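Board notes (copied after class):
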Amino acid sequence: MGFWEEFRIVLDTLRTQRARALLTLLGIILGVGTLVALSSAIGSAGLYMERTMQQASGEDIVSISRRWWGEENDKPAPRLNKYDSRALQKARTLEGAMILNRYSTRVQWGERWGQTVWVIGATPQALPFYRLEMGQGRFVSDGDVFGRTPIAVVGSEAAKNLLKGDKGAIGQELKLKGERFRVVGVMKPKPSLGKGEFWTWNKCVVVPETAFVDRFDARGKEVSEIVVRAPAQALADLGLSRLVESARAIIKWRHWGVENFKVTDAAENARSRMIVTLIVGALEMTVAGVCLLVGGINLMNIMLVSVLQRTREIGVRRAIGATRGNIRRTFLTEAAILAGVGGLLGVAGGLAFAWLLALVLDKAFGYWPFVFPWVEAAAGFGAALVTGVLFGLFPAIRAANLNPIDALRYE
């Protein structure tokens, strides 16, 4: 008996016993579908995060900020200050870099207790530096910084919370920590890196750097963050990691060897994303593996039932000349076809689910691409075939080892 004849017999068996075939396929469909759907969702989330991070900060930005806890804070050392940024500006490795100080604090607004908002002290250079865009009005100007003018630029969400909407916000007065500021602009919404952040540009109020120091920061020289945008030539020559280490070494030397600050850069963010991806990938493989294992056990049980139901057929085939190898190959072919069909249905179902999810999230977030996980789809289909062959081997061997005479007598 040739392969195609055996293949036709398997198809006839599956067609006449659809319920059994469906039950056999279910576990494999779920396993492969889970693998494909989660892989596509993870890939889409990665693209979304890359775009969001690029819009939120930029891959060429290095941030040096205060470390609020840790053993280093117990050691005597200067706090992060504007002289640190001057030292960075003089460093040869950072030549041509744009360096900005950021003053920030949380202050009370309005008359009621508990009404607080993040206030940022900035210069006009902050607008292109952080890739901010104005929705209405204008940003902080050089004249505002020089004259210490009490003006404010509010984020898109801050305008809704503090001013009851951005319509007619220009010209309104905002009371921050007892000081009155005139609103001159409202920023466009800017993507943020997550809800767990301490502050976002959308929820903050920006005032001139000098006005911030006068009204909210008695220390004056201390800053909450120094942000460095590395020049393209330095990035090409040295790489971001060497620039980060250079900035860390300069600040650490100025702080008497105490690292009471933290440095955040694109490489660190990439490592964090890699760790998250590995963890999620491990969970994904675990879930898919469990589903395939259950599907394989189910396939083996169903195949054993099939061997029992077709005992007389096996005896007839052996009587007319079929060898043990022919019988074993027939049942292995049936198991492989079942698993292959389940793998194809799982790939199709997983892709359909991921595509629908991408459509929904694209409308919700404005950008959520659909990713076709070619490698995972092929791996899932291959794993389904391997599962079918491995778990179909025992029933196939059992069918091949049946005594022909006993099989013919089986009722």
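Comment from the instructor: The CA atoms of residues 76 and 258 lie 8 Å apart. Residues 54-58 have pLDDT under 50 and may be disordered.
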